[in-house]
Amino acid sequence: MVVLMGNTPERIFPVIHPVKKKCLNCGYERQPEDESECPKCRAIYEKVEKWLLEKEREKAEKILKMEQEKLKEHQKILAGRRQSEEREKIKMENKYGSINPAMVCPQCQTTGKIRTKHITQKKGVSGGKAVAAIVTLGWSMLAVGLSRKEGTTQAHCDNCNNTWVF
User: Fold this and answer.
1) Which of 46, 58, 77, 125 is the most buried (most CB within 10 A)?
2) CA distance 44 to 38
3) For 55-79, what is each residue's pLDDT tens digit?
4) In this structure, are strands 98-99 and 114-125 parallel, antiparallel, or unpaired?
């Protein structure tokens, strides 16, 4: 068993010699009495073989370079997608809060996809503020408004896109 080490030309591009060799330049079938030169086209066999080997190596390097460029382009696309997904995740978290794994959606009955967020919501007219507005002839409304604000929890299901408050 022959083991070739390193990136030698023979390891990368093994030269397979057929039983009857032909001139790689013109296709002349070589005879045992032929030496190093083709009698038909006068090409030197060794030089033609080296030239063809070099052309194959250049072709392989060109293909390798194109594949590496394709790989880099795909990596850029994937990185862009990951960044886009991360931005969307942050956007959803800012808008609807973090995921609460224990909650169940009342509409689609899924768990693990419900986001909750504490919010303040306006709830009708505050009685105390209305009285103060009457006593101050409306000047207190400019400072505090009439509606009362109440702390509630907003929930949003990522599965069915349902949002509710409790």
Assistant:
1) 125
2) 6
3) 999 999 999 999 999 999 999 999 9
4) antiparallel
